[in-house]
Every structure is written in C-alpha cells, then in structure tokens.
Amino acid sequence: MRPAVIEARRTPEARLLRLTWDDGAVAELSYDLLQGYCPCAGCRGHSGGEITYLPPKQPITALSLAPVGNYGLATIFTGGCNSGIFSFDWLREIATKENKLVLPS
Fold first, then answer.
1. How many angstroms separate the CA atoms of 32 and 79, rounded?
2. Which domain covers residue 14, as residue numbers?
3. What is the predicted pLDDT for the residue at 78?
4. How far is the CA of 45 from the CAs of 41, 76, 80, 89, in angstroms?
5. Number of folded domains that form the chain
C-alpha cells in the first residue's frame, strides 16, 4: 500500500507547501518547484510522456490549494495556471526526485 498524505499545509511567507505522509515522511516543496512540475495540459501540452521540470519565468505564489478526493491537490498559481491537479503519488515522486523527502529515522 502506498503512503497517503495526511496533512498538506501552505506556508505563504516561505512560499512552500509542507506535506506529511502517514509513514512519517515530510517534504517541503516550493511553489516555484510545484509550478515547474505542473502536470496540466496547459503547462505540458497534450503529448504525454515524462514530465520534466520547466522553471517558471517569475516567482510563483500558490493562490489556493484544495483537496481533490483522497488522491491529490488542485492548485491555482499566480503564473496563470489554474488547472493542475497534483496526485499525492506525483508529489511524493517530485519530493524524492528533488531530494526534498525526509524519511523518519
């Protein structure tokens, strides 16, 4: 069974999203990092394939983050993107790929 996110908290002053999983892992992902990995068709096109980091052109702020069922978060960023849905699995993958995932000791 994959770990589930049990808490997602914005820290606007630091421009971070802090995620906590039920296995005790924690990650802090910057809004810029999230926007750069946005999986929506507006940011990526419709070609599919592997999602790579595309740095935003300016510093990003998350205007809102809202749960989507039990599997992810919907985002609205200042960069104009408002249709990205980040699955919790994708967020964990980003955190791991970017060495932002801290596992419990």
1. 10
2. 5-102
3. 86
4. 5, 18, 15, 21
5. 1
Cα separation, 100 vs 34, whole angstroms: 12
Neighbour tally for 52: CB within 10 Å: 9
* pLDDT higher than threshold 90 for residue 57: no
Question: 48: which DSSP letter?
Answer: -
Q: Domain holding 41: CATH number?
A: 3.30.2020.30
Measuring CA to CA, how many Å separate 90 from each of 2, 57, 58, 95, 105? 12, 22, 23, 9, 23
Sole residue written with tokens 């589930």: 4
Whether the pLDDT of residue 47 is over 70: the answer is no
Nearest 5 degrees, angle CA 51-CA 52-CA 58?
Answer: 115
Please provide the distance, in angstroms rounded to a whole number, between the alpha carbons at the two ends of the chain: 20
Can you read off the two tokens belonging to residue 80?
């104009």
DSSP H helical segments within the chain, as ranges?
31-36, 41-44, 88-97
Q: What angle do CA 51, 76, 31 make, to 5 degrees?
A: 60
